[in-house]
Specification:
With 421 residues, the chain is mainly alpha-helical. The protein has helices at 30-42, 45-48, 88-97, 112-115, 120-131, 154-162, 176-186, 192-195, 236-245, 256-263, 270-280, 299-312, 314-317, 343-351, 376-386, 399-416, and strands at residues 18-21, 26-29, 62-65, 68-71, 144-145, 213-215, 218-220, 353-354, 366-367. A hairpin with a 2-residue loop joins strand 6 (213-215) and strand 7. The longest helix is centred in the last third of the chain and has 18 residues, at 399-416.
């Protein structure tokens, strides 16, 4: 769940203090800068705009997409390679319209389809914070996109088809808390960028908002009120605890969401997290959500899968899949386990993962990898059993699906190491 943003006023004893930041040569309110710092955390800006081993916000992080690799921009106030020469209006235009300072179109890997909802006041605060950073001279590598997508003018047509510009407008029929949550989720938090399915051109399918989506060989789970694969059985407190600590009595955050929690949602105020939870609990599930999930797994597969579970998984996740609260995820009744797309559970069994670490939960919990030990068919049988044991219900997993995930994640790892395949 990529979450977060805010409309808030940070009360600050130093609100009347002014500091001069030489990067822009402007006087900026300390309170505005600190508010912008909070917004940057809420939007997970640092994670996306920092390359592994690089300087924070200096860009260069590789962002895989179905169309090639895009490298994040340098958003420090360096005047040559960053945004130090941008005006306030140019910065706002980038967020609000997806157009860079030089007039070129941005790719939606920079999630302006969501940032367009951010108010001018919050955009100015965010820019004030970025302007207060130390400038870093860093030019990210060129994007690796095939023609014609490497021509930014193509995005003009994409915008006309799929982009709807406009600042967030509160719903008068909803509570202030609900509206705050909607602003957080739909704005800088850009949760739908990961948790909404996309069409063949990479645009979010608005009619299926927050019902889950594929992302970099992970499946970002359903965030609607669906009882089986969504948040229908989660309480507001469950959601708040998960976003704050990366863990709750139901599950533990792994994969991309682990990073979101570490760098973003764990930094948010409890009131904002509660607002997010209030909004998400009100997102309806789709009609006929599981109409294609009627295939029953073969009893022999379940027998084999159960034996594999007892041998490899029950030590942590317990015999009945009940897990250990805040340590090892509960598999019984787990919404991610029962997703229509099994990519995440297959990937976790194959490659393992490290759970989110936060100030509240600094001890890292790891899931070991089993790709060295189990074949594609064994992992398929194991995943099918987990998805259908203890009252769970989800379509069977095929060995070919496991093979596809094994191959694609191996290719991703090789790319990250700079190897060719």
């Amino acid at each position: 769940m990529l979450f977060a943003l805010v409309r808030l006023s940070l009360a600050c004893a130093c609100a009347a203090t002014f500091c001069v930041f030489p990067a822009r040569g402007e006087q900026l309110s300390f309170a505005q800068v600190e508010r912008g710092r909070y917004l940057a955390a809420a939007g997970d800006c640092e994670a996306c705009h920092t390359a592994p081993g690089g300087k924070p916000f200096a860009g260069g992080r590789a962002i895989p997409t179905p169309f090639g690799t895009i490298y994040s921009a340098n958003i420090t106030p360096d005047r040559t390679t960053g945004i130090g020469a941008w005006s306030d209006d140019q910065f706002y235009r980038a967020l609000h319209q997806g157009i860079s300072a030089d007039g070129s179109y941005l790719y939606p890997a920079f999630p302006y389809p969501w940032y367009t909802k951010v108010t001018r006041e919050d955009a100015d605060a965010l820019e004030a914070f970025l302007s207060s950073l130390d400038p870093v001279a860093n030019s990210p590598p060129p994007n690796q996109l095939a023609w014609p997508l490497n021509e930014r003018v193509v995005m003009k047509g994409w915008n006309e088809l799929f982009f709807h510009e406009g600042t967030f407008k509160p719903d008068d029929q909803k509570s202030p808390e609900w509206n705050r949550g909607a602003y957080l989720v739909e704005g800088l938090g850009h949760c739908g960028a990961c948790h909404t399915p996309t069409n063949v051109l990479g645009a979010s399918e608005k009619q299926s908002a927050l019902r889950g989506g594929k992302l970099q060989d992970w499946y970002a789970p359903n965030l609607t009120a669906d009882v089986r694969s969504g948040l229908g059985n989660w309480s507001v407190d469950d959601i708040v605890a998960f976003l704050k600590t990366g863990r709750n009595s139901r599950t533990v955050a792994y994969g991309p969401m682990s990073e979101v929690i570490t760098f973003s949602t764990s930094k948010l105020k409890d009131d904002d997290l509660k607002a997010i939870a209030t909004y998400l609990k009100d997102v309806p599930s789709g009609a006929g959500e599981h109409k294609d999930d009627q295939t029953q797994p073969d009893s022999k597969v379940l027998t084999v899968g159960k034996a594999l579970y007892v041998d490899n998984c029950s030590g942590c996740h317990q015999a009945e899949g009940q897990g250990v609260p805040a340590m090892f995820p509960r598999l019984q009744g787990d919404s991610a386990v029962q997703d229509r797309d099994p990519t995440t559970i297959v990937r976790l069994i194959l490659n393992g993962a490290h759970a989110a670490t936060t100030d509240a939960r600094p001890t890292q919990v790891s899931m070991p990898a089993f790709k060295w030990k189990l074949s594609d068919q064994q992992i398929a049988d194991l995943a099918t059993y987990i998805r259908n044991a203890w009252g769970n219900s989800a379509p069977p997993v095929s060995a070919s699906k496991v093979g596809d995930v094994r191959h694609s994640t191996a290719a991703d790892s090789a790319q990250e190491r700079g190897e060719t395949r």
